[in-house]
Design a protein that fits this description.
The complex is a heterodimer of chains A (380) and B (256).
Chain A lengths: L1 H13 L2 H22 L12 E7 L9 H10 L2 E5 L2 H9 L5 E5 L4 E4 L6 H29 L12 H8 L17 H14 L3 H13 L2 H6 L5 H31 L7 H25 L3 H18 L13 H4 L3 H14 L6 H28 L1
Helix pairs in contact in A: 1-10, 2-7, 2-10, 7-10, 7-14, 8-10, 8-11, 8-12, 10-11, 11-14, 11-15, 14-15
Chain B lengths: L3 E12 L2 E12 L3 E5 L6 H8 L7 E6 L2 E2 L4 H4 L3 E4 L11 H10 L5 H14 L15 H13 L5 E5 L7 H16 L3 E6 L2 H7 L2 E6 L2 E6 L1 H8 L8 H9 L12
Parallel strand pairs in B: 3-8, 3-9, 6-7, 7-8
Antiparallel strand pairs in B: 1-2, 1-4, 4-5, 9-10
Classes of the chains: A mainly alpha (380), B alpha/beta (256).
Chain lengths: 380, 256
């Protein structure tokens, strides 16, 4: 009985040519489009070597006594300060010979940068702020005590050199932090678009349900002793088979053409994808049991897939991380995306077990609810 | 004495306040072709649905093959076949795939299933069109396929719910011939229709139904004698009109 149902329902799904071809071609098209659009932003490793900064300092600059110490600290971190007048400095900045130009004035320090985002200029500015913080703090204390005519011995020069030797503090510290490897656009979108499209596999369940209703098959089926679990599996398994074939074609084509990297353990990645297919099939079959209206299910599917896909990373590159992490973690696609992208780039993922459990729960809950409803309706 | 195959006792069906079937009682004997005749909205299809357990009766008892129609339906279903009024076939499956699909749901498998499919196709005259997609068939072919899907599991009791609606005369004649042949081979048949000539030609006994009630039941001769005892040449249609009235069903009417 089950074999007959599975065989013929699978035939019906595969013979629904328009839907079938759409599901094969859509992910391939999305992968190509998004890879082309974002290839320049992703997979780029930026190494910060040493760089030069121009400077001038006035004779009465509040930083004068302290500046040599600061300059030595900068050099220790690969940032070399070169004395030059303002005109020369601006020219050097324009021709990218220096990253920034600073004027250490009597009371103020002014930084000149080029327009746009320059990581080296940003590093220097942050370092300068860190370096100037103790001096600025000293200046505040000295002004405060002078205004209040307090008899504290803070009029002597700020001597960071001595202080740092005693306390072993350093003003500026540049560290190279360990970070996750950045995937290339073809790998990132080659993976997340497959995950995203699998959720449209709910449409297979809707197709079967629509066929049954349109052809008035349910009445005939009710004349048999087919059990609800057989009926449920008779839809769940064909949905899974049909979606797996569609996604499989998309994976093969995109991997062959774009050389998508599925990581060291492709079997694990594909196993998770298969589990996701089953979760979607179970969920879709449950929905068709709960809701008779195919239009509502289809709308629900598209809205759900787009919303969770967007907040879960399907449309986000690592650049556009503007959605709150707490909202992102509500998306089931987030866990799948993280797991598979990390398996691709690192060969491991801290999200693997969470993803596996999440998919298992979706399968179990969907099957349970779907079957319960079918049994209840049969009794009615 | 023929065995009772189907017994309906005081069967009723109500939807909200509307009574669609009103306390009807029918006995169908083994081996006969029993006709259920009535205008549109008489309650024929609802009666069929209750026999097949597709809808629960509001009142009354159903007994099929000596089994309780409410509690023992799982034992009854494999022995029962229904050709529904609406076509219930998959357009995107081939003829043989359709029959295999539905016969498979009755537990047939392997060689037994294949044999059942071949026999059903041959019986309805679709053996040469077995690899054609159902959606490409003519109306008559679809009706025959509809029948084939219902008979493949060789039921003892076959119910035909207006099987010849909207088909050409040749196809209709073919179907009626096949039903007779089925009955000759031992299948008991319940046949519903509002085509008088079909029922007249086919059925051993006829129940006339109107507004949810059985108005008259018996052989054609018995029904004629009810209305016009001395006029044996009266047609079934005339008997029917006498019993149910000539007014259109939209208005309803008290029967004679």
């Amino acid at each position: 009985m089950l074999f007959t149902l599975v065989k013929n329902n699978t035939k019906l799904l595969i013979r629904s040519k328009v839907g079938f071809i759409f599901m094969c071609l859509l992910p391939i098209a999305l992968i190509f489009i998004l890879t082309s659009a974002f290839s320049g932003y992703m997979g780029e490793k930026v190494e910060i070597e040493s760089f030069s900064v121009g400077y001038s300092i006035t004779s009465k600059s509040y930083t004068k006594d302290y500046f040599d110490v600061l300059k030595k600290e900068f050099e220790g971190q690969g940032m070399f300060l070169t004395l030059m007048d303002k005109e020369e400095g601006i020219k050097a900045l324009a021709s990218d010979k220096i990253v920034s130009y600073i004027v250490l004035g009597d009371e103020l320090c002014t930084i000149y940068n080029k327009e746009g985002i320059d990581i080296k200029a940003m590093i220097f500015e942050s370092s300068l702020q860190a370096g100037m913080a103790p001096l600025d703090g000293f200046k505040i204390v000295r002004n405060y005590t002078a205004e209040r005519q307090m008899n504290l011995d803070v009029q002597r020069s700020f001597q960071w050199d001595e202080l740092s030797k005693r306390s072993r503090l350093s003003l500026i510290k540049r560290e190279k932090l360990a970070a996750d490897p950045v995937p290339k656009a073809k790998d990132y979108y080659g993976i997340v678009q497959i995950i995203f499209i699998i959720w449209f596999g709910v449409s297979s369940a809707v197709t079967l349900s629509t066929i049954e209703r349109k052809n008035k098959i349910l009445a005939r089926i009710s004349l048999t002793n087919v059990r609800p679990i057989t009926l449920f599996l008779g839809k769940f398994i064909p949905n899974s088979i049909s979606t797996s074939i569609q996604v499989g074609i998309a994976i093969i084509v995109s991997t062959l053409l774009l050389k998508v990297n599925w990581g060291e353990y492709p079997a694990l990645s594909f196993g998770l994808l298969l589990m996701q297919v089953m979760a979607v099939s179970a969920f879709g079959t449950m929905l068709t049991v709960m809701i008779k209206n195919s239009t509502i299910i289809t709308l629900f599917m598209y809205m759900g897939a787009f919303t969770f896909g967007f907040i879960g990373g399907s449309f986000q590159t690592y650049m556009y991380n503007f959605i709150d992490e707490r909202i992102v973690r509500l998306s089931p696609l987030y866990y799948m995306n993280r797991t598979l992208v990390e398996l691709s780039t690192k060969g491991e993922s801290a999200y693997l077990m969470t993803t596996f459990i999440m998919l298992l729960i979706i399968i179990i809950v969907s099957v349970s609810i779907g079957l319960s409803l079918m049994y209840i309706r049969r009794e009615e | 004495m023929k065995q009772t195959l189907l017994k309906l006792e005081g069967i009723s069906k109500k939807y909200d306040q509307k009574t669609v079937v009103d306390h009807i009682s029918i006995v169908v004997k083994q081996g006969e072709i029993f006709g259920l005749l009535g205008p549109n909205g008489a309650g024929k299809s609802t009666t069929i649905n209750m026999i097949c357990s597709m809808t629960k009766p509001t009142a009354g008892e159903i007994n099929i093959f000596g089994l309780n129609g409410k509690k023992e339906m799982s034992k009854i279903k494999p022995r029962l076949g229904l050709v529904p009024q609406d076509l219930a076939i998959h357009g995107d499956l081939k003829a043989w795939e359709n029959i295999e699909f539905f016969a498979g749901l009755y537990g047939l498998k392997g060689k037994e299933l294949k044999k059942a499919v071949d026999e059903a196709l041959g019986f309805v005259g679709l053996a040469e069109s077995r690899n054609g997609y159902a959606r490409t068939f003519s109306g008559g072919m679809k009706r025959r396929l509809n029948i084939a899907c219902a008979i493949a599991h060789r039921p003892e009791l076959m119910i035909f719910d207006e099987p010849t609606v909207a088909i050409d005369p040749q196809s209709r004649n073919f179907i009626l011939e096949k039903i007779k042949q089925m009955n000759t081979d031992g299948t008991t048949v319940i046949y519903t229709s509002h085509y008088m000539e079909e029922v007249e030609a086919l059925c051993d006994r006829i129940a006339i139904m109107d507004k949810g009630k059985i108005i008259a039941i018996g052989t054609k001769e018995e029904l004629i004698s009810l209305v016009a005892p001395k006029d044996t040449s009266m047609s079934l249609e005339e008997v029917f009109l006498k019993l149910t009235g000539k007014k259109l069903r939209d208005y309803g009417e008290e029967a004679i």
